[in-house]
């Protein structure tokens, strides 16, 4: 994974990080660079400080500290020597570079009548290595197909952050767009037109409007666009058959999803929530679930062996929820009455 | 006969040296003007076009006559080729290595090097301010250069030939 981002790094950081063992380079998830402070790297959900000799420690004592000059070179390289062309990115606080890697920035903000206009004196960088897991949705997809319409059912994917939601929806978009329906009964179905609203440039990782991840040949991406507006724009202009949005949660997102499902479009959306019960605590999600905007709910859990998924059918959870309320059970309990299927896929499947 | 030939050679050489010096005085304001135009172009690319710096420099180079064109091209290719230099270093190197081919002096060189230390690392308004400041300084240099041109260009032209005549008279 290091090899994918190494071109962004100034020479001194590059030589240092290339001293990491091969396996570690492969598992690299984050490189956190803070000016004058210890260099930190993240891999497999853990973090370590990096010493000047390339070894890793838990404590920050004697760690390598990037100089102001190093940070300046890094900033120049990630902005293509043109910070002035990155105003929108600076307002959002991150830059997406080709390959889909996101570089989070922190520093002193510039305010313009109370609104953040950008960041100056950037002193901290977080390089998040993007990984594209082709085939991440292979096990899940057969459970979500709509056999009568030969497309996907509307699906809500729930998981806490860093559990592979984005990776999963990206692969769903790719498979549906190519028409790579994995199950035998669905073979021969054609691909569907897919519209992605990529508010945080994470799904398709567009650079100047062109996706750098393979999201399929029938896919249109509305990049860096607010989800609700983007969904409506795609609905009106690009006639998608499957609409994909990341991290819904605002009331206007709910409106747009309602609009889309009335238009007969399948919506695949993700939301931050620990599980279904957690999601029902959020008014927007609760309303969407009650109205039946989604046919299936998928919960993701990241475990040691890979990412587990659990599919719940939405028309049964309504009943399950009512039953639960009647029994006045306040503690978390599994939705036993719902037909549930689970499976898993490994995050590092080729 | 040989004396005559020598005298002619000395006259010719003296005249040429004079003309060459005069040409330098004539060339400097012209190049300063071209440099100002180039920076204005760069300002437009950065301020209105949001063009990334390497590309903005390439375009500026394409619209600028030699020898200044080479300077911008070198600065653009320098940053794309090296891994260990900041833009500031690459810019400074490009200027210093090409300065000999221009007729400009150290004043405008330091203006350009100062500009290089800010290019690309701040927001649009800031970039435009710095380029305008450099333009103002170059304008002042250009005015001074025009004064010098008026004063010394003719003088050098006649001085060369007169010194040559003096040497010839002393020799015979």
From TrEMBL, chain A:
It holds the Pfam family Spore_III_AA. Residues 324-350 are annotated as: Disordered. It comes from the Bacteria. InterPro entries: AAA+_ATPase, P-loop_NTPase, Spore_III_AA, Spore_III_AA_AAA+_ATPase. Residues 151-304 form the AAA+ ATPase domain. GO terms for molecular function: ATP binding. The keyword ATP-binding applies. Keywords: ATP-binding, Nucleotide-binding. This is Stage III sporulation protein AA. It comes from Paenibacillus prosopidis.
TrEMBL record, chain B:
InterPro entries: Spore_III_AB (IPR014198). NCBIfam families: spore_III_AB. Pfam families: Spore_III_AB. This is Stage III sporulation protein AB. The lineage of its organism: Bacteria, Bacillati, Bacillota, Bacilli, Bacillales.
């Amino acid at each position: 994974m290091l090899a994918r981002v190494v071109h962004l790094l100034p020479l001194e950081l590059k030589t240092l990080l290339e001293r990491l063992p091969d396996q570690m380079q492969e598992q690299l998830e984050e490189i956190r660079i803070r000016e004058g402070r210890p260099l930190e790297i993240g891999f497999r959900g853990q973090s370590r400080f990096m010493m000047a000799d390339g070894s890793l420690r838990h404590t920050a004592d004697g760690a390598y500290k990037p100089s102001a000059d190093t940070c300046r070179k890094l900033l120049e390289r990630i902005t293509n020597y043109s910070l002035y062309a990155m105003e929108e990115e600076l307002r959002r606080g991150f830059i997406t570079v080709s390959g889909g890697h996101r570089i989070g920035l922190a520093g002193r903000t510039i305010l313009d009548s109370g609104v953040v206009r950008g960041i100056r004196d950037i002193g901290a960088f977080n390089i998040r290595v993007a990984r594209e897991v082709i085939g991440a949705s292979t096990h899940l997809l057969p459970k979500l197909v709509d056999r009568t319409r030969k497309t996907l059912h509307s699906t809500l994917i729930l998981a806490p952050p860093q559990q592979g939601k984005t990776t999963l929806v990206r692969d769903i978009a790719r498979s549906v767009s190519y028409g790579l329906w994995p199950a035998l009964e669905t073979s021969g179905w054609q691909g569907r037109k897919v519209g992605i609203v990529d508010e945080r440039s994470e799904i398709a990782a567009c650079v100047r409007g062109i996706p750098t991840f393979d999201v399929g040949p029938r896919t249109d991406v509305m990049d860096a666009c607010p989800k609700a507006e983007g969904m409506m724009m795609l609905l009106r202009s690009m006639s998608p058959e499957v609409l994909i949005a990341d991290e819904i949660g605002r009331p206007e997102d709910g409106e747009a999803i309602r609009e889309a499902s009335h238009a007969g479009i399948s919506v695949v959306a993700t939301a931050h929530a620990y599980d279904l019960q957690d999601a029902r605590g959020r008014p927007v999600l609760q309303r969407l679930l009650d109205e039946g905007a989604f046919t299936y709910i998928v919960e993701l859990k990241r475990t040691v062996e890979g990412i587990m998924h659990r599919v719940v059918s939405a028309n049964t959870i309504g009943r399950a929820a009512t039953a639960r309320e009647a029994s006045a059970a306040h503690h978390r309990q599994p939705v036993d009455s719902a037909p549930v299927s689970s499976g898993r896929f490994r995050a590092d499947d080729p | 006969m040989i004396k005559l030939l020598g005298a002619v050679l000395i006259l010719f050489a003296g005249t040429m040296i004079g003309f060459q010096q005069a040409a330098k005085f004539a060339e400097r304001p012209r190049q300063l003007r071209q440099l100002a135009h180039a920076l204005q172009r760069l300002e437009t690319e950065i301020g209105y076009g949001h063009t990334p710096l390497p590309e903005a420099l390439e375009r500026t180079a394409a619209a600028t006559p030699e020898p200044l064109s080479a300077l911008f091209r070198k600065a653009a290719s320098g940053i794309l080729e090296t891994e260990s230099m900041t833009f500031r270093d690459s810019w400074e190197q490009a200027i210093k290595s090409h300065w000999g081919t221009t007729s400009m002096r150290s004043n405008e060189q330091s203006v350009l090097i100062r500009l290089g230390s800010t290019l690309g690392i701040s927001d649009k308004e800031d970039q435009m301010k710095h380029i305008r400041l450099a333009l103002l300084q170059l304008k002042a240099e250009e005015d001074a250069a025009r004064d010098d041109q008026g004063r010394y260009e003719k003088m050098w032209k006649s001085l060369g030939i007169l010194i040559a005549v003096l040497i010839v008279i002393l020799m015979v």
